Automatic annotation (TrEMBL):
One matching Pfam family: START_2
Organism in which the protein naturally occurs: Croceitalea marina
The name this protein goes by in its record: START-like domain-containing protein
Stored InterPro entries: START-like_dom_sf (IPR023393), START_2 (IPR045736)
Start and end residues of each START-like domain: 1-125
Length: 127
C-alpha cells in the first residue's frame, strides 16, 4: 500500500452553519446523504453502504464548526474532516473537506466527495 496524500476540496452550500452541522455530525444527519445508514456508540460511528460496514472514530468535533473522523482499519494517520467555513464578508457558507487517498486514487476520491456533497445539497434544498 502506497502513501496516502492529503487533499482538500471546498463546496459552497446554501445553509445555516447550525443546520449543516447536524448533517455532518449526527448519525441521522449523515445517513441522509453520506451513507445508507449510520449508527454510533459513543465516539464510534458505523457507516453502512450496501450492507458493508465501515467503522470510524470521531476524533474531534466543535459545534457548528467541524467534525473529524478516522477509519478504524487505517494503519496510518489519515483522517477525514468536514469543516464549516463562513465567509465574514459575504456570509457564504462552505463545507471544506480534508481527506486522504492513494495518489492514483485521488481523483476518484474527489469525485466520490462531489457526489456525496451533491446528495447533501439536495437534502438541504441547496443549489
Amino acid at each position: 500500500m502506497g502513501d496516502k496524500v492529503k487533499f482538500e476540496i471546498e463546496f459552497v452550500i446554501q445553509s445555516s452553519p447550525q443546520m449543516l452541522y447536524q448533517y455532518i455530525s449526527t448519525p441521522s444527519g449523515l445517513s441522509e446523504w453520506f451513507a445508507d445508514n449510520v449508527n454510533s456508540r459513543g465516539e464510534l460511528f458505523t457507516f453502512i453502504w450496501d450492507g458493508t460496514e465501515e467503522v470510524a472514530k470521531l476524533l474531534k468535533k466543535k459545534s457548528d464548526e467541524f467534525v473529524k473522523f478516522a477509519w478504524e482499519e487505517n494503519e496510518d494517520d489519515s483522517f477525514f474532516e468536514m469543516r464549516i467555513i463562513v465567509d465574514e464578508i459575504t456570509k457564504d457558507v462552505s463545507l471544506f473537506i480534508s481527506d486522504f487517498a492513494e495518489e492514483d486514487e485521488k481523483d476518484e476520491a474527489k469525485m466520490l466527495w462531489e457526489n456525496q456533497i451533491a446528495d447533501l445539497k439536495h437534502v438541504l434544498g441547496s443549489k
